[in-house]
Amino acid sequence: MRETLLYEKKIENEIAGAIKSGEIKVYIQPKVDMRNRQIIGGEALVRWDHPEDGLIGPNTFVPVLEKSGDIIDLDLYVWEKVLKTLREWKQSGLHLVPISINVSRLHTYQTDFIAILNQLTRAYQISPELIPLEVTESVFTEDSMHIFESIRQLQQDGFRFSMDDFGSGYSSLNMLKEEPVDEVKIDRSFLKDIESRKCQVVVKNVIAMIRELGIDLIAEGVENANQAEFLINYGCTRAQGFYYYKPMPIEEFTKLLEQKQGTCNNK
Questions:
Q1: How do residues 218-232 score in pLDDT, each as one tens digit?
Q2: pLDDT per residue as tens digits for the range 63-114
Q3: Gap between the Cα atoms of 267 and 262, Å rounded
Q4: The whole model's pTM is what?
Q5: Ramachandran area for residue 17 (φ above 0: left; ψ -120 to 50: alpha; else beta)
Q6: 93 within 8 A of 106, measured Cβ to Cβ
């Protein structure tokens, strides 16, 4: 316990310097149309390229920053990096695809949260719909009416909301009833036992329910052909996961987009 507390304190003490020095790297994991493997978007993720500890995954440091409140600064850094990248793509003539960004629960309690997002999209001249806002279903477990109010106001401004990790907690169905989101991301835990009949019954009915509600749908954590085939057969055609692409640095994602769009233009 002492070692854990000391490591968490180390993260808190170093994060500001890591952001300033560029140790925090923004990665993008592509989202694809499983029917043709076309890239339809991506999700911005983070890695910490620590000078002593090497490349650190977000599961190690993001929960610590959420507890300390430093997640606010990290997210702002990622948001601006994504918008800057989208502007560069726009200026170079690339066809823009949406890159979703993650929003912590703490943001929704910031009085300038909505203003900051609108200010950033105006400054970089990027349409709000090109940066879908991903929120985990756990965000809705506390003060849901306050969260809904923020979501609806941003939706009026042109932003789209995606419920991440759908099915990993206990509030999912209740949240869908309120219909505050534009997209649902089926959690990877649904797909782990896709060979079992019970799992298949659950997944195919979840897909049918979400589609009937008129909400967009994407599956995360797709790792093999069997999972992809099952999802397509029951009406979920969009996915992200290691079966298609792992998260990659922005520069690699840019090259991938250029390659894919160049191939399409030559056909």
A1: 999 999 999 999 999
A2: 999 999 999 999 999 999 999 999 999 999 999 999 999 998 888 778 888 9
A3: 9
A4: 0.92
A5: alpha
A6: no
Phi-psi label, residue 167: left if phi above 0, alpha if psi -120 to 50, beta otherwise: left
3-state secondary structure of 77: helix
List CB contacts of 118: < 8 A, sequence separation 6 or more.
128, 157
Alpha carbons 171 and 169: distance in angstroms, whole number: 6
From 34, 248, 242, 216, select the one nearest 132 (Cα to Cα): 216
Task: Specify the DSSP element, H or E, that contains 211.
Answer: helix 197-212
The CA distances from residue 193 to 155, 189, 203, 226, 243, in Å, are 35, 8, 10, 11, 16
The answer to whether residues 100 and 42 touch, using CB atoms and an 8 Å cutoff, is yes
Measured distance CA(121)–CA(119) in Å, rounded:
6
State both tokens at 211: 């589609």
